[in-house]
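Practice problem 4.
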């Protein structure tokens, strides 16, 4: 999360906690929906980073496999 998103998240959580203490679950539900909307972009960014990391790992493993095959072919010659 960005610093701004984290600050908003913390503020919303504090408001939600206060509303629950006041038994205002109807309003706490609305705040929770806003928290869900707030964190969705951060979750998507994490997913994108994970996919990119997976692609890089796959590429690295293919390169290692190719290098091993090339070494084996050189050894056989």
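Answer key:
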């Amino acid at each position: 999360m960005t610093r701004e998103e984290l600050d908003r998240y913390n503020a919303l959580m504090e408001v939600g906690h206060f509303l629950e203490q006041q038994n205002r679950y109807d309003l706490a539900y609305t705040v929770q929906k806003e928290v869900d909307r707030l964190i969705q972009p951060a979750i998507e960014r994490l997913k994108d980073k994970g996919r990119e990391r997976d692609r890089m790992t796959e590429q690295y493993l293919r390169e290692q496999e190719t290098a091993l095959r090339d070494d084996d072919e050189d050894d056989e010659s």
